[in-house]
Amino acid sequence: MVELLLILAAAAAAAAALAGLGYLLVWFLLHGRRDGPGWEKLEGFRYAHRGLHGPGVPENSLAAFRRAAEAGYGAELDVHLTRDGRLVVIHDGDLERMCGVPGRVAEKTAEELAALRLAGSEEHIPLLEEVLPLFAGRAPLVVELKTDRHGAAALARDTVDCLDRFSIDYCVESFDPRPLRWLRRHRPSVLRGQLSQNFHRHPSGQGPWNRLALTNLFYNAFTRPDFVAYRFGDREKPAVRLCRKFGMRMAYWTLRSRADVALAEQEGALPIFEEPDRPKEVTH
Which terms in the Gene Ontology molecular function aspect does this entry carry (predicted)? Predict the structure, then answer.
């Protein structure tokens, strides 16, 4: 009986040790930087997803960003590099959905893109430097880096260099861990965030490894983000719940009701919202 008790005690101790090691491994994989500067400047704002767009006001247009800034909101926007190395604000890598023409943003010059119109309106694809003055001295920006056929380093470097020319508080995020890794090494003063969602439900063209790694935030081990920006409907994934438990800062996208915005704010996350049921109150 004594021998059996000793064996059971040894087994329990081994199980506890393994559980502890597993917890440390998960903590190492998922935790980010705790002291990233300037987060307090982003809190208290709501962020209009691709600007405050709606009927007759296309997403990621100057009109949408002007509406957001004038309403007191921050904005989330998407940045691509053009063939001639300019920074333009558009979500898709191809031009079909928003401009009705074939081709990819990365294959066009800024001049060629400026001649196109967004969603049948008079609005053009704006340069990042056209958008930023609208928010200078007003509200912060959440800037998503869209890597395509250009280097991630060039996109990250040029974007933060451009942002720093204006009096704007901002953070930078990306699904692609490569620009975040570059920022960690070369611009640690910039708040960086790992974007993700449940890629098993929303594959978005990702291969099996990326679906697994992005869904479970494995790249956090290399990017050490200041925050995680996760799809709101997927936020109960175990990796996201663990991040919250570890004290990771959060942003949620895309919120489409006042109730969801209120819940995001209750959980301490930056709320990235979209029409049609946009919140009426500004909290800052």
Answer: phosphoric diester hydrolase activity
Residue 90 identity: I
**Mean of per-residue pLDDT scores for the chain:** 89
Question: What domains, with CATH codes, occur in the chain?
Answer: 31-273 (3.20.20.190)
Q: Which of 202, 220, 229, 203 is nearest to 145 (CA)?
A: 229
pLDDT in tens, 140-181: 999 999 998 668 999 999 999 999 999 999 999 999 999 999
Name residue 254's amino acid: T
Strand locations in the chain (E): 47-49, 74-81, 87-89, 141-145, 170-174, 192-196, 227-231, 249-255, 270-273
**Residue from 147, 142, 205, 201 nearest 179 by CA:** 147
The Cα–Cα gap between 81 and 89 comes to 9
How far apart CA 111 and CA 144 sit, in angstroms, is: 22
**pLDDT of 281 higher than 60:** no
Q: List 172's β-bridge partners, or say none.
A: 143, 192
pTM as predicted: 0.89
The CB density around residue 242, as the number of other CB atoms within 10 Å, is: 18
Residue with tokens 């101790």: 13
How far lies 117's CA from each of 76, 120, 132, 244, in Å? 21, 6, 20, 41
Residue 156: exposure state from Cβ atoms within 10 A (0-12, 13-18, ≥19): buried
Residues 6+ apart with CB under 8 A from 96: 102
